[in-house]
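Sequence, please.
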């Protein structure tokens, strides 16, 4: 929070933060300007917290989706839920859809898009037989391609250039919209989903051995897969609605954590959330400073980190799911 186009001393940041806590207010001497307080408390503080929430959420959903499909290269966006959210948000930004919801129109549009996409994926994957993981992935890829094309079509037909620029920046991901009033719902959703997954860590561990093996261990694989899909859709929808499309965090963090702590989800989930939060906070710092005073979309930096990581992971023949054979 000290870093930015306006540099502020760490002691000032701590004083401003502590001054907002009633029990410390009388002990803090106000020696900062009103402008510094606005920058720290109203702009940077909620932005850093949003970065932590988004990073933790992306990492947690990455753990869930990799366990669901048993594929070490799976990414949270593989199911196409983010593409659906992007269509809904693009309709709001360019054409003013859902304007009756006021400041929550963007969130509602993204949620609606993600909900429609997950329903389509569920429906397609169940046509003609059992709702298998392979059919689920194929349906997700197909729906994602269609919805991405619809987003491009909407951008192409935009009535004004300002809307196009806003959508393109939003699609690349940004934490610039971080405000105190927008933090409550994402925080609750991420915390609740993390708690639910932590409570199901034994089932997640069993799923790594395959659905048949998990079934013999007493896991209701059909119901558990539905639970993971709902959590994936919910987390992805929340994150996309507030920060846009930010990729590869859910791919990188679970792998790094599994190499460090093993494959037990009782440890993987909380450590992944922590690492994801730290990673995205610092990526956002680089995004703010690299071309200051202009801001670089955070999704560009995560892609620059995640792309080479994905290639390295793909070429590393000795890699096993869970890291180093653990």
């Amino acid at each position: 929070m000290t870093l930015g186009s306006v540099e502020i001393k760490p002691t000032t940041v701590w004083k401003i933060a502590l001054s907002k806590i009633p029990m410390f207010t009388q002990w803090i001497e106000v020696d900062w300007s009103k402008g510094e307080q606005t920058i720290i408390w109203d702009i940077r503080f909620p932005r850093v917290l949003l970065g932590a929430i988004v990073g933790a959420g992306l990492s947690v959903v990455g753990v869930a989706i990799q366990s669901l499909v048993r594929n070490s290269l799976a990414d949270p966006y593989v199911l196409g839920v983010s593409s659906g959210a992007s269509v809904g948000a693009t309709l709001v930004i360019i054409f003013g859809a859902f304007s009756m919801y006021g400041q929550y129109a963007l969130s509602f549009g993204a949620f609606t898009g993600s909900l429609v996409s997950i329903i389509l994926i569920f429906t397609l994957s169940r046509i003609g037989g059992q709702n298998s993981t392979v059919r689920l992935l194929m349906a997700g890829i197909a729906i994602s391609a269609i919805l991405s094309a619809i987003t491009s079509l909407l951008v192409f037909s935009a009535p004004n250039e300002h809307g196009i620029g806003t959508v393109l920046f939003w699609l690349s991901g940004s934490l610039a919209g971080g405000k105190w009033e927008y933090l409550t719902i994402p925080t609750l959703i991420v915390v609740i989903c993390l708690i639910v997954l932590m409570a199901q860590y034994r089932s997640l561990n069993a799923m790594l051995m395959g659905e048949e093996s998990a079934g013999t261990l007493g896991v209701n694989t059909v119901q558990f897969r539905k639970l993971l899909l709902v959590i994936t859709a919910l987390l992805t929808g929340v994150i996309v609605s507030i920060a846009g499309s930010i990729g590869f965090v859910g791919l990188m963090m679970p792998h790094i954590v599994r190499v460090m702590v093993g494959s037990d989800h009782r440890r993987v989930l909380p450590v992944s959330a922590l690492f994801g939060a730290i990673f995205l906070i610092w990526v956002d710092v680089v995004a703010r400073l690299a071309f200051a005073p202009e801001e670089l979309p955070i999704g560009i930096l995560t892609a620059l980190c995640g792309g080479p990581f994905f290639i390295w992971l793909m070429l590393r023949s000795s890699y096993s799911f869970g890291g180093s054979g653990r």
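The first helix runs from residue 10 to 19.
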